[in-house]
Amino acid sequence: MAGVHDRVLRDALSIGVATGVYAVSFGVLSVAAGFSVTQTCVMSLVAFTGASQFTFVSVMGAGGGVAGALAPAALLAARNGIYALSLGPVLGRGRWRRALDAHLVIDESTAMAHAQRDPADRRRGFVLTAAAIFACWNAGTLAGALAGGVLGDPRSVGLDAVFPAVFLALLVPQVRTRGALGTAIAGAAIAVLLLGVAPAGVPVMAAALAAVPLLVRGARP
Amino acid sequence: MSWAAVIALCGAAYALKMAGALAASRAPEGDGVSARLDVVVVPVIAGLIAVQTLGEGRDVVLDPRVPALLVAGALVWHRAPLLVVVLAAGATAALLRAAGL
Q1: Is residue A183 part of a domain?
Q2: What's the pLDDT tens digit per position in B11-69?
Q3: Do the Cβ atoms of A124 and B40 come closer than 8 Å?
Q4: A96 in a domain, yes or no?
């Protein structure tokens, strides 16, 4: 049993470190876009949702204005709402507990929670992953914001390939039935088909539609 | 940049998370609603993998992320630890890029 728990902790730390490296580039980008170091750190602490933050500072830096930057950022952040809904019992019951847990709902913490076979491990996977990422994401943001552009392109060390690999590793344990495999393939297809025609954020969210047949079938007695 | 922009982003991000959490707390317990909502995450994560692997802005491109994901898939299939999967995927993409791909 201790071995299982160690695995959750080890996985959480691995994801945290990778996220931290990405956070350094967020810090660099945000300061370059014209945000102060404090503003940059507040975004990582309070918004705490990577893809939206990157999009927001990019559009603002390019002179897109608050409304123009907020729309794509909110579209990207909207999937966190779907995640929170799916996590249900994994999130704490009390009002304050739930308010704090909601803040921690992101791609990685959700995928880690759902990847655990034992329901008792789901909460642990969620909390440990969120805690590791929160620490690394904010430390990385501060480092990047202070250091400026001294860091190279994270793509040259393959960091952009790391995240799909993480999510694949966390998705596979959730695909236990033929129906789940079908929804996964359909979800990927929907996202790719929409990539060229829908605004950023919509393709990934629309992938949820692939679950509709399973939901409808499950609703029947 | 204005603080209003920062506050707008932070408020929107948290409101979207909290909306889902509140909806989840309204769902009746013990009738399998949350078990069924589980299935929504599978296609969303699959869509995320597809976009992160093939997306370049609004274009679909084949670059070193694709072989890196295939290497990751093979390792996941053989139940390799996550850290091994992460390092192998990153190394595959980095080596292919260093080779000029």
Answers
A1: no
A2: 999 999 999 999 888 876 655 666 667 788 899 999 999 999 999 888 999 999 999 99
A3: no
A4: yes
pTM: 0.84
Task: Pick the closest to residue B46 from A30, A128, A190 (CA basis).
Answer: A190
Q: How many Cβ atoms from other residues are within 10 Å of residue A17's Cβ?
A: 16
Model ipTM value: 0.90
Query: Which residue segment(s) compose the domain that A8 sits in?
Result: 2-150
Looking at the domain assignment, is residue A200 inside a domain?
no
Per the DSSP assignment, residues forming a β-bridge with B59 are: B56
CA torsion angle A123 A126 A127 A130 (round to 10): -170
Give the closest of B19, B25, B50 to A191, CB-based.
B50
Distance between CA atoms of residues A30 and A37, nearest Å: 8
Count the neighbouring beta carbons within 10 Å of the beta carbon of residue A41: 18
Closest CA in chain B for residue A190? B47
- For A128-187, what is each residue's pLDDT tens digit? 999 999 999 999 999 999 987 666 677 777 888 988 998 898 889 888 889 889 999 999
Q: What is the distance in angstroms between the Cα of B71 and the nearest Cα belonging to chain A?
A: 9
Please, is A96 exposed, middle or buried when counting C-beta atoms within 10 Å of its C-beta (0-12, 13-18, 19+)? exposed
Within chain B, what is the greatest distance between any pair of CA atoms?
55
Reduced to 3 states (helix: H, G, I; strand: E, B; else coil), residue B59 is strand
Predicted local confidence at residue A59, as pLDDT:
86
Work out how many domains chain A is built from and give that number: 1
Q: Examine residue A76 and state whether it is found in any structural domain, yes or no.
A: yes
In chain A, which residue's Cα lies nearest the Cα of B86? A162
On whether the CB atoms of residues B72 and A169 are closer than 8 A, the answer is: yes
Size of interface A-B (CB pairs under 8 A): 304
